[in-house]
Amino acid sequence: MHELSIAMSIVEMAQEEAERRGSVPIQAVHMRLGQLSGVVKEALLASYEMACEETLLAGSTLLIEEIPVEVMCPHCRAPRMVRSIQWFCCPECGAPTPDVLRGKELEIVALEFRE
Amino acid sequence: MSNEPRLVEVRKNILKQNDVVARSLRERFREAGVLAISLVSSPGSGKTAFLEKALTLLQPRCRVAALVGDLATENDAARLARSRAPVKQILTGTMCHLEAAMVQQALEGWDLNSLDYLFIENVGNLVCPASYDLGEDLRFVLLSVTEGEDKPLKYPTIFNSADVAIITKCDLAAAVEFDEALARRNIQAVRPGMEILKLSAKTGEGMPAFLQFLESHNPHFRATAAVTQQSS
């Protein structure tokens, strides 16, 4: 369960931003979470609430955009969404591919300040 | 002033701190000419036995060292010390994975220039270590024949993050009716094209191929010669 340490990193980064802006409280954090990031959404949400306590993010919401896995199909030469992360192949032609284009994201994209 | 929240775009990689340290480690490994290999697997799949065998075979001929992550005990380091290679334990406490900074700290006082190979054994866990780059050149994921062929499908993220799969305890394959073809198909499903090695640390089967594999990633190294000499 490493979601708590991920949640603490999110809070720490957001807190730094908030302090740079004169300690304005944060209402929401928008983030992208890739399906291959190795982080479980539910566990992250539960940890986030705890990590926010006694910070400028107390009571804030974590808004998670889940990013599906997209691979490059060597046969179609086009980006394709895999049907399942248990099967890295092109959903159109079936060609296997290890070439991941998207789906490893673990990033903050925006902060909502209360003002 | 309005009461509307103000949305500010900030693109920040949450693991940036780890990634920065990992990049600097990778750079140090490259400059020192050391090949860094990390091992990940579930608990009990034979990481330490494999590493002990590998260190023992490698140690007479080339310069190897190992860092071993463990939650609470130093048993693994004690086992590995029998190989007489330099070994350092990283006690992770409640942490379920290694992070780049822990590797960096453990390497303090070590001269990387005096090494050819550095092994980094992660905590036994098929989930959390997937997210953390340790600066390694290669990540090996171990799968023992006693675990079942579907492990790659259950933990696709970590298998996808690895460069090489190693099937361990192959001396037990027949006893547990291990379906090797199925295991290989499952590995290829989650990481197409991944190289697969099969070995037994107990009998030594497959170890020469493993050493050859290492050699192919480091032309300066004469592991194969060492093994050929030992087995002749």
Describe the structure in your own words.
- The complex is a heterodimer of chains A (115) and B (232).
- Chain A has a domain at 3-67 and 102-113: hypothetical protein PF0899 fold.
- Helices cover 26% and strands 30% of the residues of chain A.
- Chain A has helices at residues 3-20, 41-52, and strands at residues 26-34, 61-67, 70-73, 78-81, 100-102, 106-113.
- Chain A has a 3-stranded mixed beta sheet. Chain A has a 3-stranded antiparallel beta sheet with strand order 4-3-5, with no helix packed on it.
- In chain A, helix 1 (3-20) packs across helix 2 (41-52).
- Chain B has helices spanning 16-32, 47-58, 75-81, 100-106, 151-154, 156-161, 180-190, 207-217, 223-231; strands at 6-13, 35-40, 64-70, 87-91, 117-121, 138-144, 164-168, 195-198.
- Chain B has a 7-stranded parallel beta sheet with strand order 4-3-5-2-6-7-8, sandwiched between helices.
- The chains are: A alpha+beta (115), B alpha/beta (232).
- The A-B interface holds A 1-2, 5-6, 9-10, 13, 17, 27-28, 30-31, 36-39, 85-89, 96-98, 100, 106-115 and B 1-2, 5-15, 17, 95-97, 127-128, 130-131, 153, 156-158, 160-161, 188-194.
Secondary-structure map:
The complex is a heterodimer of chains A (115) and B (232).
Chain A lengths: L2 H18 L5 E9 L6 H12 L8 E7 L2 E4 L4 E4 L18 E3 L3 E8 L2
Parallel strand pairs in A: 1-2
Antiparallel strand pairs in A: 1-6, 3-4, 3-5
Helix pairs in contact in A: 1-2
Chain B lengths: L5 E8 L2 H17 L2 E6 L6 H12 L5 E7 L4 H7 L5 E5 L8 H7 L10 E5 L16 E7 L6 H4 L1 H6 L2 E5 L11 H11 L4 E4 L8 H11 L5 H9 L1
Parallel strand pairs in B: 2-5, 2-6, 3-4, 3-5, 6-7, 7-8
Helix pairs in contact in B: 2-3, 8-9
